[in-house]
Specification:
The protein is globular, with a radius of gyration of 20 Å. The protein is 28% helix and 23% strand. It is of the alpha/beta class and 437 residues long. The structure holds (4S)-2,6-dioxohexahydropyrimidine-4-carboxylic acid (DOR).
Length: 437
């Protein structure tokens, strides 16, 4: 395997950062020191002025394989992830067919192992994600699956969710909930409020999300099984999870970049590119989500990268599927939300690497899943999953420059500050100078 020395970047540890050299060899971080003597034949990369931290981890990535390879494949999604600085992604189970059994989980793990980054899998909670019968979670857990979700929809039936939690607890896995009460959401296509009334579109009220958060916190209290709350989009949802966490309940939550960078006013374009579930909310919620990120009330920024083929996204607003791309812009958008120049590098890596690695239980190597350890402390002996983020680069997001197979990116033309310039994943140089090697 290769040898690298990253020279004079700000190395961001768990609790402090310092300017250091990082020597990587044979898939491991060998030394982190003020000055490292470069071993013969090593590739030296000058990263002065950049942040050097553990490779980013996305707990919420939709790869469309099997079923919708025209939108994304495991390979193309992994490449988009790598370019975004992710050394590990968790593939969501809402493929066609759904990842609700060991054979399909193994298929995705096998394909994922052939990509330059680690691809973990979230299994479905219910068979076919239909919300009626539990999926064989124990058999999938035996393959190393640690996260289960019906994402795309939430588990609507509270008694089924209760049973799922009771079943999951002894397996040591975590259930992740897409929080939307479908009856309250009522077939809406955007946030319910003044803007939806003006546009004449049916709205999905914030309460549809908050009620399910409230319900599931109580189910966690009843069963003692951990739960992860996905793509929360309102201040109240975050407050509910924060209060439950303070009570000592085993709950974690994530926020998606589109929810803290875009608001419901985008809908005035009637462009389905902005259609997503849960929907983009009002500006007040966006500001509250940003404040929650800074305050440490959120465990992870998760992309909810949701590729859709152009012929699907170009349908009339009501018919187009919800979802937008996220992997390639998450780092810059998180940096922006944390205050750009005033952003804390510790919070940045906590939200984009250490927190999500903890939620997805990817902090230790797992031979069954064939993945290494992620979200580390940047210490000698750790697996070489390392990212370099340059907070000084100004660039413009371009839909036609994406690695993803799909193009449903809502940020086309947006000015960005901060870019992933290097990614070392599985001990190899995958991204250099902001481009795939
Ligand atoms: O908008 C969404 N799209 N929300 C989800 O939860 C699923 C996703 C998708 O798979 O397209």
């Amino acid at each position: 395997m290769s040898t690298f020395v990253l020279r004079q970047g700000l190395v961001v540890g768990e609790t402090s950062s310092a300017v250091r050299d990082v020597w990587i060899e044979d898939g491991l971080i060998r030394e982190v020191a003020p000055h490292v003597q470069a071993p013969k034949g090593s590739t030296e990369i000058d990263v002065e002025g950049c942040w050097v931290g553990p490779g980013l981890v996305d707990v919420h990535t939709h790869l469309r394989e099997p079923g919708h390879e025209e939108a994304e494949t495991i390979e193309s999604g992994a490449q988009a992830g790598a370019l975004g600085g992710f050394s590990a992604v968790v593939a969501m189970p809402n493929t066609e067919p759904a990842l609700d059994n060991p054979a399909l989980v193994s298929y995705v793990l096998d394909r994922g192992a052939r990509t330059p980054i680690d691809v973990a899998v979230a299994g479905a909670i219910t068979q076919g994600r239909r919300g009626a019968l539990l999926a064989p979670m124990a058999e999938m857990a035996a393959l190393g699956v640690r996260l289960f979700t019906d994402d795309g929809v939430g588990v609507q039936d509270p008694s089924l969710m209760r049973r799922a939690l009771v079943y999951a607890k002894p397996l040591g896995v975590r259930l992740a909930q897409h929080c939307e009460d479908e009856q309250l959401a009522g077939g809406g296509t955007m946030n319910e409020g003044v803007v939806s009334s003006r546009l004449g579109l049916v709205g999905r009220p914030m309460l549809a999300e908050e009620l399910m958060v409230l319900r599931d916190i109580e189910l966690v209290r009843l069963t003692g099984c951990p739960m992860h709350f996905m793509h929360l989009s309102t201040a109240r949802s975050i407050a509910l999870v924060s209060a439950a966490r303070l009570e000592g309940l085993p709950v974690t939550c994530e926020v998606a970049p589109h929810h803290f960078t875009l608001d419901e006013d985008s809908m005035t374009t009637f462009d389905p590119i902005f259609k997503v579930h849960p929907p983009l909310r009002g500006a007040e919620e966006v500001a509250a989500l940003r404040a929650a990120l800074v305050a440490g009330h959120v465990d992870a920024v998760a992309t909810d990268h949701a590729p859709h083929a152009p012929e699907m996204k170009d349908l009339p607003f009501d018919e187009a599927p919800p979802g937008m791309l996220g992997l390639e812009h998450a780092a810059a958008l998180t940096y922006e939300a944390l205050g750009a120049e005033s952003a804390s590098p510790l919070t940045f890596f906590s939200l984009l690497s250490r927190g999500p690695a903890r939620v997805a239980q990817l902090r230790a190597r797992d031979a069954r899943l064939r993945h290494g350890a992620h979200g580390g402390a940047m210490l000698a002996g750790e697996d070489a999953n390392v990212v370099v983020f340059d907070p000084n680069v100004r660039w413009t997001a371009r839909r036609d420059a994406l690695k993803s197979r799909a193009t449903n990116c809502p940020y086309d033309g947006r000015a960005m500050l901060g870019r992933v310039c290097v990614l070392i994943a599985k001990g190899e140089l995958v991204v250099n100078n902001g481009a795939l090697v």
